[in-house]
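ENTRY TYPE: paired fold submission
RECORD: A
CONTENT: sequence, then structure tokens
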Amino acid sequence: MTAPRFLASSALRLATAFAVIFALGGALMFGAFQWAVTGYANASIEEDLRVESRVLLADQAASDLPGLERRVSSRTRLGSPFSYALFDRTGRRLAGELPLEAPQGPGLGQVAMPAPTDGSAGADEPILVRTLATPLPDGSLVVGKTTYAVHELQEWMAQIALWGAAGMAVLAALGGLTAGLILARRLERVNTATARIMQGHLSERLPPIGLGSEFAALRDNLNRMLERLEASMEAMRHVSSDIAHDLRTPLNRMRQRLEQSRARSGTVQGLHEAIDHALTDLDGALDIFAALLRIAQIEAGAGREAFVPVDASALIRRVFDAYQPVADEAGHTMALLADSKRLILGDEDLLIQMLSNLVENAIVHADEPVHIILEVHDEGSRTVLCVRDTGSGIPDEAVSRVTRRFYRLDHSRHSPGAGLGLALVAAIASLHNADLVLGSNRPGLSVRLNFLAAGEVDSAGSGSEP
């Protein structure tokens, strides 16, 4: 990674943010700790002053200034950790080493004294002494204790806070930089994969990112999106190839007829017949384009805003009534099994077109008389529409491909059609969030469409017709 890229990278920003946050956190933590320890030390000094004052005034010497003077002088000579001053009622100091400026009023106070000369501070650097004055009948007793140790503790803790915050900031910066570099390295692999995808390698997938379930979910969603994109591009390539193949036949046929008519037809009637044949071929090509446009519109979700509750039994009965005469004329038989009182949410015209395509496929592609069954029933929370026939069916290896545009089985190539019927059925089923299941009817084909129910109706047509 070059210097300019590193300076603008998320790794450096993450390391800086971690360093600032941890430095502030460390400073606040050590500051709070210093405040607590200092408060405890000052409270301890004040308690020691009260205890020492009670000890000095514990017996009859408390009312005897000469005796109290001897006791104070003795403690001063013995090197007590406390400092003393005994004043008479005129304010004259009788014993002790505290300065005359020491507060003589009752309660706590403080006075400045030179610091001890231990090499760490000069004698001219005063420190504060906490004092406690106790009034006496003929004067007052002042007991003091230096805060020099507390000041040294504060300085020591300030250094700890400074170095601790600095150390935490350095460790946080290193941790943030490491995490940022790991993230940058993994994102670099993702960028490499996306660059290959943009170059046309649609089979490429994003590598694992790590760093938690959120990134794993993001990677899985993106890979699923890429799979759908690859499938869409593959389908588009198939569609382009199939359009070129299926339209070439009627166009070539039209060209041949026009050429033959130009060479052979010498009458107006012959030319009219040639034009009629050409128009028929053009209508077939236009029908293919219209079907493709309809499928594209349905796959884009057009019409979903017009969905209304539709009576499932009444819907399938309409299709049955429309195609029963057609089936009888072609030598086939039809039966209706309507056993549902539910409504399904959808576009009634599209649903009728979907069922009509399935019935027409069974009628048109049958080589011999078949029996066609239209059925609707309820399974749990779903309503199932089913079209079954006893025809030749679909081979197992072709089930996954028959819903592709222009796909036709070998035995159906001699019958009319362009291989768009089941593609339109699949598009309408997907628009209605219905599961399309193709299977064997032993013999023949069974097509199931599983819909989520939208409610129930008070009465629905039901029955069975041979």
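RECORD: B
CONTENT: sequence, then structure tokens
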Amino acid sequence: MRQLTDPKSTTAPRRDVVAIACGAVIVAQMATTIYLPSMPALGADIAASESTLQLSVAVFVVFAALPVVAWGRVAERFGRVPAFVAAGLCFVLASAGLALIQNAPELLSLRVIQAIGAGGIAVIGRMMIKDLFTGAELARQLALLSMAFVVALGGGQVIGGIVTSTLGWRYGFVVLAVLAAVPVALALRIRLPRPERTARSAGTARRLLGDRVFLAAAVAGGIGFAVIVMIQQKSAFIFADGFRLAPWVFGLFGVLYGAAYLAGATYVRRAVSRLGARAMMRQGAWIMLAGCLLITAVWVFDLPRAFALPIFLIGYVTTTFGQATLFPNSAAHAVSHLVAGGAMAVSWCALIQQGLAGIASLAGPALTGLLAWSLAITVLAAVNVVVVAAPSPTRE
């Protein structure tokens, strides 16, 4: 395993790296969660349709995924810190620019740039973690990143709802730019040696895509991510139009989702050493399917709002808990068995996972009916159960 630090330096460098990685996860995810409560108001101000606004979520996911391997190669060649800072500045500047937009083309263009930066800081942060940990301990640290995700999932939506209801949607992007500057500033304060030069990466994709353990785990995490993104993509309009709730109320529900993700991440940290990453992947996939079935029941039975809202929330929370259980274990299981090239494998894993989520989110605007949409996420969750149930050729 490649060491980032001198053996004489122990906990402080690792703690700093973990803090930076957690900060990257927070701001990258907040680019969606702060944004969600503001979507209806933003659309009204810049004359953007609901499908365009959903597309703005989709393009973010897609363009966060597309450059992650390129970011990984930059981090391998020039070092983790320079690559992280470059991606972070891209994210900060795009977030600030989004506060000034006047029309839909500007929204979509800057969301692309913001996504490129978000994908970079997220994957480089994970590469830093992979440099330091492996096996069950890697899953534990990725679960810690999931706890950072909790802050973004719950806190971001709450902040977005309150800021939109009080100051206006533009200030949500200002808050995001300021928050994103923090991990960038922290990264500038640390010194990490340039990674050891490794063998040429030619054939890396072919090798990884031929690795059944890597591919199945990466795909499982990607499908789970796809389900969550498709729910997020639609939720703002379900709450605003279907349940007639104000943005700040929608934002407060983020506390529930954050609590669910925290519970899942805590469960992973406590149980992964005993159960193993693969077993926890299976558990997470089944839990996500149960949550999606609850959501689908709302539209299949056309429930009145008094029943529909709590059942929808329970389904959303259950699905979120399942994803918190599935995702860190899928990422750890995908790369832990690799003897060489583990850090670049993190990039390829992120490409598969975010790419699958991006493809699914592009289909979201076409699913205009809520029944069709809920059936689609349920089918995806069912497919994931099959993926994680396939026998593994290696032991955990």
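NOTES ON RECORD B: The chain has 16 helices and no strands. Residues 1-12 have pLDDT under 50 and may be disordered.
STATUS: closed
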